[in-house]
Amino acid sequence: MEQTPGNKLARYIKNAHFSAPNATIEGIEYHDYRKLDKAEILRFATCQYIEEGHHIILKGASGNGKTYLARALGHAACRKFKSVKYIRKPELLDELSVAKGCGTFKKTIKLYRKVDLLILDEWFIRTLATQESYDLLEIIEARCQKGAIIFCIRCLD
Predict the structure, then answer these.
(1) How many CB atoms lie under 10 A from the CB of residue 78?
(2) pLDDT (0 to 100) of residue 21
(3) Rounded to two decimals, what is the model's pTM?
(4) Segments of the chain scoring below 70 in pLDDT
(5) Of the CATH numbers 3.40.50.970, 3.20.20.370, 3.40.50.300, 2.60.40.10, which one belongs to the domain with range 5-24+35-154?
(6) Where are the domains of the chain?
(7) Stretch (H or E) spanning 76
(8) Following DSSP, what letter does each residue of 84-126 receive, concatenated?
(9) Could you tell me if 52 and 147 are in contact, meaning their C-beta atoms sit under 8 angstroms apart?
(10) How far is the CA of 10 from the CAs of 39, 98, 146, in angstroms?
């Protein structure tokens, strides 16, 4: 049975695990106080940064729309049939901890290496334990050869 493009896109979006799948590039509001460069966002929506292995850092105070913007860029990548994984850092740390306990840590790292775009939300939400830092570096290092990462960093200002 052949998949239609709509079914394929729905599968990519489902597999991304967005916390709210309705974020889109078209839905971004470019208010002056947000200081968003529309041309740059539209350039990111082409997903060329993924092909080139570049990463994006979205930095701002709580409630400024970092998560929405990251999910919108992730949705744009899904539209280009790029594999995307969205995860909050606390959930990722829990997943890595469980994987270590189950003896599947390396397999879990490989799964994060496979996606074209990894979106890591709530990057600086709390200070990390030393082992947590090493575990996250394993993910980042595994992705240095392929794909891109979007980091959502909350400023404390």
Answers:
(1) 25
(2) 62
(3) 0.90
(4) 1-3, 21, 125, 156-157
(5) 3.40.50.300
(6) 5-24+35-154
(7) helix 66-79
(8) EEEEEHHHHHHHHHHHHHHT-HHHHHHHHHH-SEEEEESTTSS
(9) no
(10) 27, 29, 24
77: which residues sit within 8 A by CB, 6+ positions away?
47, 50, 84, 116, 117
* Residue pair 116/101 in contact by the 8 Å Cβ criterion: no
- pLDDT value at position 156? 65
The conformation of residue 31, written as its DSSP 8-state character, comes to -
Beta bridge partners of 58: 152
**Listed residue (25, 21, 67) closest to 44, CA to CA:** 25
Q: In what order do the strands lie in the sheet with 56-60?
A: 56-60, 148-154, 117-121, 84-88
Going by the DSSP 8-state scheme, the letter that residue 19 receives in this structure is S
What was the pLDDT predicted at 28?
Answer: 94
Residue 64's pLDDT is 83
